[in-house]
Amino acid sequence: MSKKNKNTEDVKDQVEEVLDTPVEEAEKEEIDKETQLKEELEKEKDKFLRLFAEFENYKKRTSKERVELFKTASQDVIQSMLPVLDDFDRASKEIEKSEDKDLIKGVELIHNKLKETLKSKGLTEMEVAAGDAFNADDHEAITQIPAPNEDLKGKIVDVIEKGYKLGDKIIRFPKVVTGQ
Questions:
Q1: CA-CA distance, 64 to 160, in Å (whole number)?
Q2: What pLDDT is recorded for position 176?
């Protein structure tokens, strides 16, 4: 071989050595960048999915709160009408003692109309009677008296004031007397 060819081969070998090393390092750097970018992409996807789920939960929660608000929006007005309803109940009992049938009929009509109007707004009367078991979560005990008989110990002896619910929420607990 000639000296020129030998020098060319030496230069080629040197170039290949120089080129091979950076090419391998560049490939490693590319692979590292690629995996790094994939990891970042996965993190961003996860972040996006979490944010999306959180937003969906927020929408559900606010719509549920809005429905609850509409259900109980009139709670203050209805609560202020409960004493009027109680007065009507007491008046009805007293008027029934009267001989005037037209008066009884008129008061009953007004009383029923008020009850039906409040019922249409979601008000329901809590059913409580003497002899029912006392439950502190559903009843308000005003006082305790000695039970007239053994069957009424720990139970409701008398109902002083009716309780009412607005939807599923108790807006006034029934006031009761319990036996001890």
A1: 35
A2: 93
Sheet holding 123-125, edge to edge: 123-125, 164-166, 169-172
Most distant CA atoms of the chain, gap in Å: 143
152 DSSP assignment: G
Tokens for 12?
A: 């080629």
Residue 157: Cβ within 10 Å count: 21
Which residues pair with residue 123 across a beta bridge?
166
**CA-CA distance, 93 to 109, in Å (whole number)?**
14
Strand partners, 164: 125, 172
83: its two tokens: 């004493």
Residue 96 phi/psi, 5-degree rounding, is -60, -25
Six-digit token string for 128: 């409580």
For residues 26-39, one letter each, b for 16 or more C-beta atoms within 10 angstroms of the residue's C-beta and e for the rest, the string is eeeeeeeeeeeeee
Determine contact, residues 35/126, Cβ cutoff 8 Å. no
pLDDT tens-digit map of 103-160: 889 888 999 999 999 999 889 999 998 888 888 888 999 989 888 888 888 889 999 9
Cβ neighbours around 67 below 10 Å, total: 11
Least confident among 15-19, 151-155, 176-180: 15-19
